[in-house]
Design a protein that fits this description.
mainly beta; six-stranded antiparallel β-sheet; Rossmann fold; six-stranded parallel β-sheet; 219 residues; Elongation Factor Tu (Ef-tu), domain 3
């Protein structure tokens, strides 16, 4: 049975687009980029959320999209600074570090699926991926822009709003994907985006063993 521990909320920010940035005390929690922690509501329901903070930060942070009928996100949206939350120990299987760092890593994220990649970039700022493809609906959905400065090939897409970035879906930038059987491709976010990436890479001869993904479910 999963054990949960109390952590105090250090800060909580609400974006205009309904994304909650939750910052908790870290205590002695150890994790690696890509790990999740289950966060519990007051009626004992829980959902896993990817850690967004870096391994050297003295806090834990998460990006959570509020869903009106969500069993946990709606509860979290009503909390405030200094409230206590029950969270599990870190766990996970999605790790951008598990492969040879001498190979090119290509990241794909939509929405709050940027969280594990932000954790990686904050933890290892001098070892960025070769490319990041990041898609959101609106400008207020963008997080972590300041952490992208070391990324050589950055492709940001905004689908529902005019901006200085590409106006459209993340898939419209697929022609820029570096293709090599030696590259590692990491996807996190909506299932539809992940399927689009997998299908595109398969048609280009990329082995499924070089494609790693974590699907985000709303809750």
């Amino acid at each position: 049975m999963t054990s949960f521990n109390k952590h105090k909320i250090l800060n909580i920010h609400h974006s205009n687009s309904g994304i909650i940035e939750l910052i908790l005390e870290r205590k002695d929690v150890l994790f690696k980029p890509g790990d999740c922690m289950a966060i519990s509501s007051n009626d004992a329901k829980s959902r896993p959320y990817s850690i967004c903070s870096g391994i050297n930060d003295n806090f834990l942070s998460f990006l959570i999209r509020k869903i009106e009928n969500g069993q946990v996100s709606k509860y979290l949206s009503n909390l405030k600074k200094n409230d206590q939350l029950l969270i599990s120990e870190p766990f996970g299987w999605f790790s951008p570090l598990k492969n040879n760092t001498n190979q090119k890593n290509i990241f794909f994220a939509t929405g709050t699926g940027i969280a594990p990649f932000l954790s990686y970039l904050k933890s290892y700022p001098n070892n960025p991926p070769d490319s990041l493809f990041y898609g959101v609906r609106k400008k207020d959905d963008l997080f972590g822009i300041n952490n992208f400065t070391m990324i050589k090939n950055l492709y940001i897409s905004i689908s529902k709003e005019e901006s200085k970035y590409h106006n459209g879906r993340i898939t419209e930038n697929f022609s820029h994907i570096p293709l090599s059987k030696n590259n590692n491709y990491y996807c996190c976010g909506r299932e539809s985006m992940i399927n689009d990436v997998r299908i595109f890479l398969k048609t280009k001869g990329i082995s499924k063993n070089k494609i790693f993904n974590e699907v985000f479910f709303n809750g």
